[in-house]
Design a protein that fits this description.
299 residues, alpha/beta, Rossmann fold, 2 domains, six-stranded parallel sheet, three-stranded parallel sheet, 10 helices, 11 strands, globular, binds 5,10-Methenyltetrahydrofolate, Bifunctional protein FolD, amino-acid biosynthesis, NAD(P)-bd_dom_sf, oxidoreductase
C-alpha cells in the first residue's frame, strides 16, 4: 500500500515540540519574535503570510506583520528591514517572495541581518550551509521540512538515487545540496534536473527519491517514476476550478497516477506546505536562542 505522507500531522508535532523550547526562552525573559514583510500583489502571498502569523500565535511566538504599499519606493522596504534588523524583539525576519517589480529581490534578501535570516536566503547563510553541517547557521524552510518528512517516514537517503527537479534558490539548489551532504539526512547520490535537461524521464525513472519543485501543475506523472519511489511534491499551483474560491491547489506531480507507482508520496495540499511553515517557526526559535545565548532543545 502506498503511504500518503501527512504533512499537517508532522508539522503539528513539530509545533508541539517547539513549545517546550519557547517556554524555556520565555522563562529566561525572551519571547521569540518573527517579522513578516509583505510587499506584493501576488494573491497567494497574503494567504501564506497570514498562515505564518497564525502559526506564530499558536506556538507563542511574537508575530509582527509589516505590509508595504505595492507602489512604495524600494527604499521604504530597505528602511523597514533596517528597523527590524535593529529591533531586539525581532529574532527572525521573512521578506515574502515574490516582491513588487521596483525591488531587486536579491538585494532585499541581502539586506536582512544574517543572524535574523530565517529563510536562509542571505548569501552568507547559503554559503555557510553549502560549507557543511559544522558551518551552517540555518537550513531553508522547505528543504529543511522535506528532510524532516523523510526522516519521520523512515525514508533512507544514504545511498539513495535522488533526483531534484528544479534549481531555484528557494528549493531546488539547497535541497540538492542538503541531500548530498555527508550527514544523517544526506549521503544520497543527487541529480539536479531542470528546463534544459534532455531526457527528464530517464532520470526520474531511475530515482528512489524524486523532489518535484518546478512550479508547473502535474508536470510529473506515474509513468515517469520508478516502482516503489518516494515522491515529494513541492508545487503549490492554483488552477481554475469551480470551487468556492474559484481555484484548487495542485502539485507539480499528477497525484492519482503517481500514487499507483510510488511507495511514499506527499499530497498537495497537506504535504510539504505545512512543513515549510513549521520549519520557519523552528528557525525563529533557533535564531532567538542564538541571539540571547539561551540554550534550547530543538525537535
Ligand atoms: N520569503 C519567503 N519565504 C517562503 O518560505 C516563501 C515565500 N517567501 N514565498 C512563497 C513561498 C511559498 N510558501 C508556502 C508555504 C506554506 C504553504 C502552505 O502551508 N500550503 C498549504 C495550503 C495553502 C493554501 O491553502 O493555500 C498546504 O500545502 O497544505 C504554501 C506556500 C512559502 N514561501
Amino acid at each position: 500500500m502506498t503511504e500518503v505522507i501527512d504533512g499537517n500531522a508532522v508539522a503539528a508535532e513539530i509545533r508541539e515540540d517547539l513549545s517546550d523550547a519557547i517556554s524555556t526562552l520565555e522563562q529566561a525573559g525572551t519571547v521569540p519574535g518573527l517579522a513578516t514583510v509583505l510587499m506584493s500583489d501576488d494573491p497567494a502571498s497574503e494567504t501564506y503570510v497570514s498562515m505564518k502569523q497564525r502559526d506564530c500565535e499558536e506556538v507563542g511566538i511574537n508575530g509582527i506583520h509589516v505590509e508595504l504599499d505595492n507602489d512604495a519606493p524600494a527604499d521604504e522596504l530597505y528602511e523597514t528591514i533596517a528597523d527590524l534588523n535593529a529591533d531586539d524583539e525581532v529574532h527572525g525576519i521573512l521578506v515574502q517572495s515574490p516582491l513588487v517589480e521596483q525591488v531587486n529581490e536579491r538585494e532585499a534578501f541581502r539586506a536582512v541581518a544574517p543572524e535574523k535570516d530565517v529563510d536562509c536566503f542571505h548569501p552568507e547563510n547559503v554559503g555557510r550551509m553549502v560549507a557543511g553541517p559544522s558551518h551552517a547557521r540555518f537550513k531553508p524552510c522547505t528543504p529543511h521540512g522535506i528532510l524532516k518528512l523523510l526522516d519521520h517516514y523512515d525514508v533512507e537517503t544514504e545511498g539513495a538515487e535522488a533526483v531534484v527537479v528544479g534549481r531555484s534558490n528557494i528549493v531546488g539548489k539547497p535541497m540538492a545540496n542538503l541531500l548530498a551532504q555527508n550527514d544523517a539526512t544526506g549521503n544520497a547520490t543527487v541529480t539536479v534536473c531542470h528546463s534544459r535537461t534532455e531526457d527528464l524521464e530517464a532520470h526520474t525513472k531511475n530515482a528512489d527519491i524524486v523532489v518535484a519543485a518546478v512550479g508547473v501543475p502535474e508536470f510529473i506523472d506515474g509513468t515517469m517514476l520508478k516502482e516503489g519511489a518516494t515522491v515529494i511534491d513541492v508545487g503549490i499551483n492554483r488552477v481554475d476550478a469551480e470551487t468556492e474560491k474559484g481555484y484548487k491547489l495542485v502539485g507539480d506531480v499528477e497525484f492519482a497516477s503517481a500514487r499507483e507507482v510510488a511507495d511514499t508520496i506527499t499530497p498537495v495540499p497537506g504535504g510539504v506546505g505545512p512543513m515549510t511553515r513549521a520549519m520557519l517557526l523552528w528557525n525563529t526559535v533557533k535564531a532567538a536562542s542564538e541571539q540571547t545565548g539561551v540554550d534550547v532543545d530543538l525537535p
